[in-house]
Amino acid sequence: MTTWVQSPEGGRERGPRGVARAWVEVLVRPRRFFRNGVAPGDQAPGLVFAVAVAVAYAAGLFAFVPGRLPALGGGPAVSAFVALAVVALLVAPAVLHLTAALQTVLLIALVRDRGGVSETVQVLAYAAAPCVFAGLPVAGLRVVCTVYGAALLVLGVAEVHGTTLPRAAAAAAVPAALLFGYGFGGFAALEAVLRAAGVL
């Protein structure tokens, strides 16, 4: 899980600059990024990327929706620090790998010639890139972030696992719903947008 490929290409550069570069590339040139930036056994940059996205999302929630900040001893600053540490060290890695396990099972059922588990972990991690902004208290923005993330997941699955977009969409539907719909709050944001528009 923590293996670094010695000669990273594309967005898999080490350090904060590498994370920032990967974020820009996957948002602007996703097909090229998934083709060149995902390599077998190179999970560590993807894990670091996913943790960074999860921490940014949680920090946005805690900053703009104070009720989401857990009430721990030591005041708001200590509570925020502890909560973000839990997100970074426990929640983000666990969610990433559990979702990747589910995605792998679905790929086994739907895609004959596919990439490995490490590539699936990386695709899920990088697909979450738009959700850096999903913690902001704007329902429409959260919908856009999560829909874009789901689209990146489908594109990444198709590109990395060498399958068609319809088959990739079928394989990624449930993981996308869990990660972006529930994890990053896309379903709740969509409901809020529809209620505001008078549809619900």
From TrEMBL:
InterPro entries: Yip1_dom (IPR006977)
Keyword Heme listed: no
GO terms for cellular component: membrane
Domain named Yip1: residues: 25-183
Chain segments annotated as coiled-coil in the UniProt record: none
Membrane disposition: Multi-pass membrane protein
Main location: membrane
Cell location: Membrane
Residues spanning the membrane: 44-66, 78-111, 123-156, 168-194
Superkingdom field: Archaea
Keywords on record: Membrane, Transmembrane, Transmembrane helix
Name listed for the protein in its UniProt record: Yip1 domain-containing protein
Native source organism of the sequence: Halopelagius longus
